[in-house]
UniProtKB/TrEMBL annotation:
Keywords: Amino-acid biosynthesis, Aromatic amino acid biosynthesis, Cobalt, Cytoplasm, Lyase, Metal-binding, NAD, Nucleotide-binding, Zinc. This is 3-dehydroquinate synthase. Residues 181-324 form the 3-dehydroquinate synthase C-terminal domain. It comes from Metabacillus sediminis. InterPro entries: Dehydroquinate_synthase (IPR050071), DHQ_synth_AroB (IPR016037), DHQ_synth_fam (IPR030963), DHQS/DOIS_N (IPR030960), DHQS_C (IPR056179). GO terms for molecular function: 3-dehydroquinate synthase activity. The keyword Metal-binding applies.
């Protein structure tokens, strides 16, 4: 069993990584002074079929459990589903001595975390991730729902009491969801650890079809990087913005296509290629962007911005993103692998650069 402590402001909590991690739930809650009288288990319909009964029975050893399953997919991060969860919690008699447990990927974690943050002004919650992508989203306390005009536009910073990452829950992931999570693993390596990136690049099979040991290493290293950044900047007033590498364009692609049309990781991969190209053009960075594109293609990531989206349309979505300030769009670029910086662009300039990127074949 691996354990990574996450420090966020005055709070700290453990991320437990390993088989049967959830068996430590009683001790972790007791050590943290959280012994709930009721638990609301929030999941999605796919995870519910696979693991809902198993996890519900485990939680019932602590206190009575009510379960709420949302539809699988990014569409669940809506105001309607959020409202339905709060209504259900009230109907089931949850109160300030209750706890929410999020069983699922990033969508469920974001939605359940926001419900926990706002129900009766905040009740405890835990994360039980079931996707590789959630190694990023389950740590750090960002919770949110989407708005048609932008992703994660309505939310709160609210830390879980603990995160329990059992790799057995990843065994049922389809290939496209595993690849989606791998994009965030690669992002962490690119912004913080050149040796980790080299480890990922030396064996394509480890990225495309990782074994249990490789997967555990990726999860642990990714969480350590995320935890180190969050400990310095819980609410994204400084260095935490580096975690947005690839996300400015990635979020715009997701929103412009319509949530659920492309996986988060595939969109972020396209965003990382643009940010890498931009880093070489603007900062004279040596990132081997052409080799990066070839590697992404081998992994299975789409390596081009969807043709049906115009650069002007994407720019409009980037302007409505949270990373925009004073009419400028903030982009995370790299001076070199492991050295991120923030560059601000006027919309007209960035749109021209995006158009140039789309027309220019990286070699």
């Amino acid at each position: 069993m691996e354990s990574v402590m996450v420090a966020a402001g005055e709070l700290s909590y453990p991320v437990l990584i390993g088989n049967q991690a959830l068996e430590l739930l009683d001790k972790v809650l007791a050590d943290g002074g959280t012994v709930p009288e009721k638990i609301l288990l929030i999941t999605d319909d796919t995870v519910h079929r696979l693991y809902g009964k198993q996890v519900k029975e485990r939680l019932e050893k602590i206190s009575p459990v009510a379960m709420f399953a949302v539809q699988s997919g990014e569409e669940a991060k809506s105001f309607e589903q959020y409202y339905a969860i709060l209504t259900y919690a009230l109907e089931k008699g949850l109160d300030r001595k209750s706890m929410i447990a999020a069983l699922g990927g990033g969508v469920v974690g974001d939605l359940a975390g926001f419900a926990a943050a706002t129900f009766m002004r905040g009740i405890p919650f835990i994360q039980i991730p079931t996707t590789l992508l959630a190694h990023d989203s389950a740590v750090g306390g960002k919770t949110a729902i989407n708005h048609p005009k932008g992703k994660n536009m309505i939310g709160a910073f609210y830390q879980p009491k603990a995160v329990f990452f059992d790799p057995q829950f990843l065994e049922s992931l389809p290939a496209e969801e595993m690849r989606s999570g791998m994009a965030e693993v690669i992002k962490h390596a690119m912004i913080a650890d050149a040796s980790f990136l080299s480890w990922l690049q030396k064996d394509l099979s480890a990225v495309v079809n990782p074994n249990a040991d490789q997967l555990a290493t990726m999860i642990k290293e990714g969480i350590k990087i995320k935890a180190g950044i969050v400990s310095q900047d819980e609410k994204e007033t400084g260095v935490r913005a580096y975690l947005n590498f690839g996300h400015t364009l990635g979020h715009a692609i997701e929103a412009a296509l319509g949530y659920g049309r492309i996986t988060h990781g595939d969109a972020v991969a396209a965003g990382m290629l643009f940010a890498s190209w931009l880093s070489e053009k603007e900062l004279n960075a040596d990132l081997s962007a052409g080799e990066l594109k070839d590697w992404f293609k081998e992994i299975g990531f789409p390596v081009a911005v969807p043709e049906e989206l115009s650069s002007e349309e994407l720019m409009n979505f980037m302007l409505s993103d949270k990373k925009t300030a004073s009419g400028k769009v903030n982009m995370v670029l790299l001076k070199e692998i492991g050295t991120p910086v923030i560059h601000s662009y006027l919309p007209e300039r960035l749109q021209d650069l995006l158009e140039e990127f789309r027309k220019e074949e990286i070699v």
